[in-house]
Design goal:
The chain has 296 residues and is of the alpha+beta class. It folds into two domains: 99 residues, no CATH class; 182 residues, no CATH class. Helix 7 packs across helix 8 and helix 7 crosses helix 9. The protein has a four-stranded antiparallel sheet with strand order 1-4-3-2, with no helix packed on it. It contains twelve helices and four strands.
Length: 296
């Protein structure tokens, strides 16, 4: 990181003081009074807070950015930290609902041998009656394509897990969310309209998906800490971050989350414009100065 001292202005001025004021107010030795100036409304997060303090920035100076404005990626890695953003979790759940409907439309369009759904027979039974019939019969060991059971389902579980993990939930809280989405939202929800709930999906999706999801979370932390760059490329970094966390990265692109994260990264490293001022009493009046520093 390079530092450029843009300006150091030392302003010495004299303010005459009456003799009585000098005797009462001037200390024997000069005392400097410092006042840190922010270049703009940008946020400064000390490394001591982010790196070593598990509860920071809550325990840091009140001038530091509030806890609610930070993401879990601004804190050190922890499997137990819980700072859930429930509003964003509900938004993520709504997006998952829309994605579930779209997925069902796509699966309906696939050949029967890809999904093992007997579409002709299913069409003879009313939709909700068919759902109740499948729920009562399950769960069973299914004969679905292994690509669905052991590749796409774990990836879907990891995406569900990241939907909560990136919003401040602990590993346990994220697993519970993944389990609820994969079990009640999918196996006993959308998919039960077309097939009996699957034993493999009830186990593989939340369990393997959560393990894979935590690996995704660790990988995304490295990408975010490196300003969304991989091999020096931000395009590659953003693409990989999207594959690791499609729900949050898609919504975040519209909310500007990535831009705000990059700003916090720069401030944490001390980059940008900062300054300070000081005033000190002297025997002839007051002395003061201002300095501005731009780090990059």
């Amino acid at each position: 990181m390079r530092t450029v001292l843009l300006l150091i202005t030392l302003i010495c001025f004299s303010v005459p003081l009456r003799a009585t004021e000098r005797a009462d107010s001037l200390p024997t030795d000069s005392v400097a009074i410092s006042d840190t100036l922010a270049a703009d409304t940008a946020i400064i997060i000390p490394d001591s807070c982010i790196v070593s303090c598990d509860s920071c920035p809550a325990n840091c100076d009140s001038s530091i950015i509030g806890r609610e404005s930070l993401s879990i990626y601004d804190y050190p890695y922890s499997r137990t930290r819980s700072m859930p953003n429930w509003k964003r979790l509900w938004v993520n759940t709504g997006v998952l609902t829309g994605a579930g409907v779209l997925t069902m439309v796509v699966l309906k369009a696939l050949p029967a041998d890809a999904t093992a759904w007997n579409k002709r027979e299913d069409a003879k039974v009313p939709m909700f009656k068919r759902w109740w019939r499948n729920v009562r019969k399950g769960p069973v060991w299914d004969g679905d394509n292994p690509i669905f059971n052991y590749v796409l389902h774990p990836y879907a579980g990891a995406a569900y897990y990241m939907g909560a993990r990136s919003q401040g939930f602990s590993t346990w809280g994220s697993f519970v969310y993944c389990f609820c989405i994969s079990t009640f939202f999918w196996e006993y929800g959308f998919e039960a309209f077309n097939e009996i709930p699957s034993v493999q999906d009830l186990i593989v999706t939340p369990v393997v998906g959560s393990l894979l999801g935590e690996a995704f979370y660790v990988a995304k932390r490295h990408i975010v800490a490196n300003d969304y760059r991989i091999l020096g490329s931000r395009v590659l970094g953003i693409a990989c971050a999207w594959l690791l966390d499609p729900i949050n990265e898609t919504i975040g692109a519209f909310r500007g989350d990535q831009k705000h994260q990059l700003q916090r990264n720069r401030m944490r490293r001390g980059e940008g414009l900062s300054g300070s001022s000081w005033i000190a009493p002297s025997t002839n009046g007051l002395q003061g100065g201002v300095s501005l520093v731009y780090n990059f």
